[in-house]
Design goal:
The structure is a homodimer of 146-residue chains. By secondary structure, chain A is α+β, with helices and mostly antiparallel strands. Chain A has helices at residues 2-11, 17-27, 35-45, 51-64, 103-107, 132-137; strands at residues 67-70, 78-81, 87-91, 97-100, 119-130. Chain A binds a DNA duplex (25 and 25 nucleotides) through residues 12-19, 34-36, 48-53, 55-57, 60, 75-77.
DNA sequence: TTGTATGCAAAAGGTTTGCAATGAT
DNA sequence: ATCATTGCAAACCTTTTGCATACAA
């Protein structure tokens, strides 16, 4: 939070109540909420706040490097606080995205592919499978659906 | 292609001209096209084909295990032929997704996280950065935008 | 013949934008 | 005072769906 304020000051962009609210809504969660969920949480503290504003604020926070849009294969973008490199566990059944911070993985030296002149800036690993709740529900049959 | 036909027969689902067309459009490309691009390509061979059908066919191909929806952080899903495990190079500037097949990466034993009872089924690594064309265009400033 | 797939058009998300008013610095 | 941001509502884009028809097996 202080981080965002500092970054805003430095870049001369206004620190609004909406930006605080969205950041707070995002910082409080570990489940990579959708814009709509963020809106719900933020609007609870700041009634009257629009979903459109949430999208604009998220874009602003991304520009500041405070928030990040995570890669997924479902519908509706997911967001997270951008702090440190980490990887994701993605549930194929419910779409939930969990953080995975594993020193062993960080230590791992991934071969940096120079394929076709591509210049790598970030690496992120996605482990897809079933989260515990879904694993219990499904007897191990059928798969996927948002 | 023969693979899809065989799978269809086995499961008793019809092999239609549209399914062939979409599969052909997808098999011919290495750039993980959006549904709309696939539609354009498929409709060239099969005039009158609808975008709605492309979506339904893609869903069917996914069910058959012939096509796959790839994770991304932009708007509009991207698709690929599902053959063998491989990883992706994602361009932060133009959104292009390139395949990366690296034996060294396959050989790499990734620590399988049993975090919170999560059951891993697939692993995919995303290398994000700039593809060669974008790297030339941009003097290394600004970032992102579909 | 039977059941699924397709075309068409409409609906349902999710995300963006123009404009006037509001607010931060 | 000045310029970016917000609310509101409409526009946009992507994806899904109902229904009658067409088609594969």
């Amino acid at each position: 939070m202080g981080r965002m304020v500092a970054l805003c000051r430095r870049r001369g962009v206004p620190v609004t109540a909406q930006r605080r609210a969205v950041l707070r809504a995002l910082a409080g969660r570990r489940d990579h909420p959708t814009a709509e969920r963020i809106h719900a949480a933020a609007a609870a503290r700041l009634p009257g706040m629009t979903l459109a504003t949430v999208y604009r604020v998220l874009a602003a926070l991304e520009r500041l490097g405070v928030a990040r849009r995570v890669a997924h294969d479902g519908t509706g973008a997911r967001f997270e606080i951008a702090e440190g490199a980490h990887h994701h566990l993605v549930c194929l059944s419910c779409g939930r995205i969990l953080d995975l911070r594993d020193p062993a993985l960080e230590a791992l030296a991934l071969p940096a592919p120079r394929a076709a002149g591509f210049h790598v800036q970030e690496v992120s690993i996605q482990f897809r499978g079933l989260c515990r709740p879904c694993r219990r529900k499904q007897p191990a049959r059928e798969r996927r659906r948002r």
